[in-house]
Amino acid sequence: MTILDVEAVQAFVTIADLKSFTRAAEALGTTQGAISVKLKRLEDRVGHKLIERTPRMVRLSVQGAAFINGARDFLAAHERAVAGLSPTAVRRFTLGIAAHIAGPEVPTLLARLNTHDPAMTIEVRIDTSRALLDAFDRGDVDAVIVGREDDRRDGDVLAKERLGWFAAPTFEHREGQSIRLAALSPACRVHDVAKRALDAAGIAWTESFLGGGSSAVMAAVSAGLAIAPFSPRMAPLGTVDVGERYRLPELAPFEIVLHTTLSDTRSREALRMLAAAFREHRPASLRWDSGFV
């Protein structure tokens, strides 16, 4: 009978999820060498190569693809069994994510956290960076992923995000007129950066649309009513970067930062997994390690 080692299976699933030995080691708080040893031990145990690794990519083998769902079920069953022995079996924390950062990958990241620790419940709040930082400082949320604010240098850097000026292909701007800028109400840091950049370049602008939320701003931009600053990852579908066309100033990338007060081991492990997965979804040219432990 084949007996599986929990840590080896966890290493395999984490490598498969993050498609990187380096990120998997970061997420599990160990070294790349240790991750490789655990994977080799699992492959020897099951008698199959589970991960194919080249200098350019890491992917599941045919056998690995057949094994991955069972491996996830194995880990979930193990976590449920261990959690049942604890008087605090259910753990909960509140995570805030800034609206201009929370992209389409967020459900995938949360699903990975659930696989990693089924006994943990995470309440997610979406708001502006400033509002979430204020909530964090009041103790209303346990951790936030936000854009770096100018007035504070604390927190752990997760990634760096590029910004552009996006509009619908039908958007028209006549030379000499003020730029029609769609903006959140209240304003978020990205829009503040955009306004300062326009002011510094001597380009007149007007807030022609004040949205109550990011979805309203996206709708205004998609309809061709205005321009708005977005990262390419978050720009509304079908819009294009018009910065060069209208000679708009280049927008400096901004740092995405994690703030947390969580100190227990399991919560820190969950955040480490989230941080590693979050970086995976950013272009490699705009990523660096944060040292989050």
UniProtKB/TrEMBL annotation:
Indicate yes or no for the key word Secreted.
no
Domain HTH lysR-type, which positions? Answer: 4-61
Instruction: Indicate the transmembrane segments per the record.
Output: none
Q: Which Pfam families match?
A: HTH_1, LysR_substrate
Q: Which InterPro entries match?
A: LTTR, LysR_HTH_N, LysR_subst-bd, WH-like_DNA-bd_sf, WH_DNA-bd_sf
Keywords, in A-Z order: DNA-binding, Transcription, Transcription regulation
Asked if the keyword Secreted belongs to this entry, the reply reads: no
Annotated Gene Ontology MF terms? Answer: DNA binding; DNA-binding transcription factor activity
The domain of life for this entry's organism is: Bacteria
Regarding protein family, the annotation reads: Belongs to the LysR transcriptional regulatory family.
Q: What is this protein called?
A: LysR family transcriptional regulator
Q: Which organism is it from?
A: Aureimonas ureilytica
